[in-house]
Amino acid sequence: MKCKRAIVRQPGRSVINGLSTSNLGLPDFPLLLQQHNHYRRILESCGVELIVLDSLEAFPDSCFVEDTAVVNPDLAILTRPGASTREGEVKEIAPTIRHLFPRVEQIFAPGTLEGGDVLLIGNSYYVGLSDRTNREGTNQFRALEEDVGYGVEIVPLKELLHLKTGVNAVDDHTVLVAGELRSSPIFETYDRIEVPLEEDYAANCLNINNTVIIPAGFPNISQRLQEYGYRIKTVEMSEFQKIDGGLSCLSLRFF
Ligand code: CIR
User: What is the pLDDT of residue 6?
Assistant: First the structure.
């Protein structure tokens, strides 16, 4: 699907206190802002018009807008993050989503769901059952999306933060797979490019209008994607990686 627009949110200073399991240290705020700017320019260079929201100091992780809503041409769903410090981010983005999309639904308690757990390939959704997205959340999501004609398959996760930490589509029939999803039978129907262990972080990539955007510093996956004929662009993500943030979570992309 052509991506015409995307929502991003300016990181606030509090971003350095974002949730993290990485042991990579605290992000350097000025460098993180430079990387965010570069990320925005790369999206624009792929033909995407950006809607830039103001920073929210009260919510350290709020630049990871992808987790707060899931949108397609038929429906927008406001999520309910499983991380309690992130729940309030949804109220903050809701007016923008309601302004942009004609039909908006919502995940309700006790359901939880984060957009990082939701991968769309063609008309099929894959939804990670993770520490952040619970069974009730996936059930609500499934009912809403099946109603508008999308398929929904649940992917139980044991280790990954989000589904898209370990699998992303580089086109409608090819996925990059990493970590526990390397051998998952769920993605067997796709051509699979296995990401080597030391480059796991690069599994979170984005295909924007036929350009695959990957994090800088992962030579193996970069070379293999080029050998397969993909056009690639890279962006430095070191400061976001320190707080478990991947490429996809920094934007909410739509049509
Ligand atoms: C969090 O733990 O919620 C943030 N520090 C990182 C969120 C990354 N989101 C994503 O991969 N979709």
Answer: 98
Give the pTM: 0.97
Atom of ligand 1 nearest to the CA of 81: 3
- Catalytically active residues are 162, 249
- Count of structural domains, the chain: 1
Q: Which of 59, 66, 249 for mutating ligand 1's site (highest number of atoms within 8 Å of CB)?
A: 249
Q: Which residues of the chain have pLDDT under 50?
A: none
Instruction: Provide the pLDDT for residue 1.
Output: 81
CA 249 / ligand 1 centre spacing (Å): 7
pLDDT number for residue 237: 98
- The CATH number covering residue 175 comes to 3.75.10.10
- Measured in Å, residue 92 CA sits from the centre of ligand 1 at 17
- Cα separation, 70 vs 92, in Å, equals 15
Task: Give the Å distance between the CA of 161 and the centre of ligand 1.
Answer: 8
Domain of residue 176 covers 5-254
Of 90, 123, 120, residue with least CA distance to 105: 90
* Residue 70: alpha-carbon gap to chain centroid: 10
Q: What is the DSSP letter of 92?
A: H
